[in-house]
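Structure, all two chains, one model.
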Amino acid sequence: MNHGRWKLYTFLGLGLAFLYLPVLLLIIYSFNESRLVTVWTGFSTQWYRELMQNRQLLEAAWLSVRIAATNATFAVILGTLAANALVRHGRFRGRTGFQLLLTAPLVMPEVITGLSLLLLFVTLEDLVGWPNGRGFTTITIAHITFSMAYVAVVVRSRLSQMDRSLEEAAMDLGARPLRVYLSITLPLIAPALLAGWLLAFTLSLDDLVISSFVAGPGSTTLPMVVYSSVRMGVSPQINALASIVVLIVAVAVCIAGFSLRQRSAGANSPPRA
Amino acid sequence: MANSVERRNLEPWQDPRAMPYVRIDHVTKKFNDIYAVDDVTLDIYQGEFFSLLGSSGCGKSTLLRLMAGLERPTAGRIYIDGMDVTDMPAYSRPVNMMFQSYALFPHMTVEQNVEFGLKQDRLSRQERAERVSDMLTLLQIGELRKRKPDQLSGGQRQRVALARTLAKHPKLLLLDEPLGALDKRLRESAQFELVNLQERIGITFVTVTHDQEEAMTMSTRIAVMDAGRILQVDTPTAIYEYPEYRFVADFIGLVNLFEGRVVENEGDQVVIESTVGRRLRLRDLRPHAIGAPVTVAIRPEKLSICETYQEDGVNQIKGVVEDIAYLGDVSIYRVRVSPAMLVEMTLTNVQPRTEQVLTWGQEVAMEWSPTSGVVLTE
C-alpha cells in the first residue's frame, strides 16, 4: 500500500470515527450493567427490560410513531402532487414562487417554523375554533409542512429522469390520462415514493424543536421525553431506547437508499435524438 | 412474394380516382414562434410504406406526432380513412406509434407490454391471450414472453415494440426512426424484415428517418423535408434520379452540382455553359430562358472515363485525381477539375485494387450522357 493511499484511509477512518463513535459508544453502554452511564461494569440487558415497563416512554414512542406514519403518508401525497406540478406543467404563472415556497422549509430555521406555526394555530383557534387545543393534529400538520418539501425533492428528481415517451406510448396504446398515471407513472416512481415516505417518517420521528412549539399537554413525543429526562440525569434506559431508534432509522435509511438505486436503470431508456 | 410484387407495382398515387388513406391538409405546427411543420399537405395511400426523410430538426418527427395525436396542429386538418381525427386525442385514434426509444414499459414483462393496449380496449382475457401469442409468434419472440425489457438486446426490444403496436391492429402504424437504435449489421437485415412484415400484414406504415439509404430500401414513396416543409414526394427511384430541388439532390446520395447558364434549347435537350468552362448538354423537356441560371446534378456513378476527350467537347471534363475512397465493391474518385470544384466519380472495382488504372495525382478525363443528369432551377 503506497503512502498516499495510507493517508487517505487514515483520514477516512478519523472521519467515520468522528461521526459514528459516539453512536457506537451509546449502543455499547446500553448493555452496561451499571446505573452510571459512564462506568462500565459488565454486560446486561436489564435497561431494555426496564424500558419495556416504562409506560411514559412507551406511550411517547407510540405517539411519535403514529405521528410519523400519518405525516409520512400525507407528505408523500402532497409532495408528489407538488413535484408533478413542477415537472409536468411547464412554466405556469407563479411557478417560481411555488418552487421557492416549497423549498423554504428546507432552509428555514426550525425555531421560526415552530413559532410561526404555533402563532397560526392559536390565531385559528381564536377565529374558527379549530384546531381545538394542541396535540396529535397540530404536531402532524407541522411535520407535514416541512417533510413534504423533502418528499417533493426526491420525487421531482425521479420524475424528471423518467422517459416521457413511456407515458406517450401508453396513451398511444389507448390509455386515458388517469390510467397512464396509475399504471405507468406511479409504478415507475414508486421507489421514490417509498424513499420519500421513509425519509418523512424519520424526519418526523426525531423532530424535537418544532414539536415542542406545537405540542399540547398530554401529547409528549419521544424526543421530548428523552430531552427532558436527560436534563434530570441520563438513565441507561435512554441509551437502550436510543439504540433501538438508531436501529430503526438505519434500517429505514438503508431501505430507502436501496429502493432508490434499484431499477433506476429501468427508468433511463435511451434518450431521444 | 408474387403477391407483394403485385402490390408494389400498384401505384395508387398515380390513380386520380384513388382515395388517400391519410390526408394531411395544410397542417401547421408552431412551437412558440418556431414553425416545426409549415403548411404541409400530404396524401398517403392504403398499404403504402411511406417515409418522411430529412435531417434532424426538419419537422419530420413533429409531423409523425401530429398523426399520432401526441401534438395538436396549430392550423389545418388531418384525416385518416376518411375520418377527421384532428381533434381526437391520441388514446382514441386508430393509429399506433413505435417510439425511437421503443418506450417499453420497464416494469412489465414482454407479454404484459404487448397486452397493455389490448387491455385498454377491454378485450376478453381469452381474446387478449390469443392476440398476444399471435403477435409473439409473428415476430418470433415467443420464448421471451416472461422477460423484462432490461433483459433484452436492442434487436429483441425492437421486435417487442413492434409487437406491442401491431397487437391493436391499427389502421396506420407510425414508426419513429424504427432502426435508429440498432447497430449497422442488424439494421440491414431488419430493413428487409420490416418490409416483409408490412407486406404480410398489409397495414399502412409511415416511418421517419434521417438515413437516406434506409428510406430508399424500404419505402414505396419518400417525402423529403427541410425546415418544416415538404420539398418533394416521390418514389425512391424518382427521388434519386430526378430530384426537383438542389437540397433533395444533395441530401440523397452523392451528387456533382455544376452551376451554369442556359445557352440554347435544342428540341428535347438544353445546352448549358457551366462556370468551370465546359459545355453541358442534357435532356430536359422544359423550355428554358436563354441566360437563366441553373444547376446541373450528375450522380458520381453516371460518370465514366473518357477516351475521346476534346478541348471543346460537350459533357466532358478533365482533372487530377486528388482522393480515392476504396469501399470494396466500388471506389469513389475525387477529381479536382478547377480550383473551386471537385468532381466525384464512382467506378466499380472490376479488377483488384492493385491493378487499378487510376491513381493519385493522375490526370483523368470523364464523360456522361445527356440522359444521366437533371437540370435544377431551384
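Residues 44 and 213 of chain A are 37 Å apart (CA to CA).
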